[in-house]
Amino acid sequence: MRFIAIIFALIPLMASAIDLSKEQRAAIEERIQPYSQVCIAGDESCAGGAATTVAGGPRSGEDVYNGACMACHSTGAAGAPKVGDVAAWSNRLAKGMDALYDSGINGVAGSGMIAKGGCMTCSDEEINAAVDYMVENSQ
Question: Any idea what the CATH number is for the domain that residue 65 is in?
Fold first, then answer.
């Protein structure tokens, strides 16, 4: 019986916690927004409006490396060969550049290397340029 009395005593307190101002509600809604959105081309309701394209053609190997590859290839995470580590790259280079390009584009089964290093907006040519950049800096 005492428990029920406590519950009834707390109801007014819980109701006042729900009574938020418009500013408080807006602040909460802003904080809990999804991390990202899926926008369909031409959908003006998406944040930022219509989709934009990057001018200037394909990204350089260094740009792709800095944006997608560096996290693992600068630290050795998940067994990735570090850029500049000649010994770590020598066995891979022995297989040939075509094998390295294939690994960059398709990933390596059973390892931490995922397709395109997770850069799904990168073209195959941009991934190949990133591989070239890493190889040039690891010989």
Answer: 1.10.760.10
Residue 103 sits in which domain range?
Answer: 61-136
Closest to 115 (Cα-Cα) out of 102, 126, 99: 102
Whether residue 104 lies inside any domain: the answer is yes
Q: How many CA atoms does the CB half-sphere of 57 hold within 13 Å?
A: 3
Total domains, the chain: 1
**CA geometry: angle at 70 spanning 38 and 126, to 5°?**
65
pTM of the model: 0.61
Q: What pLDDT shows up at residue 53?
A: 46
| pLDDT tens digits along 65-114 | 999 999 999 999 989 999 999 999 999 999 999 999 999 999 999 898 99
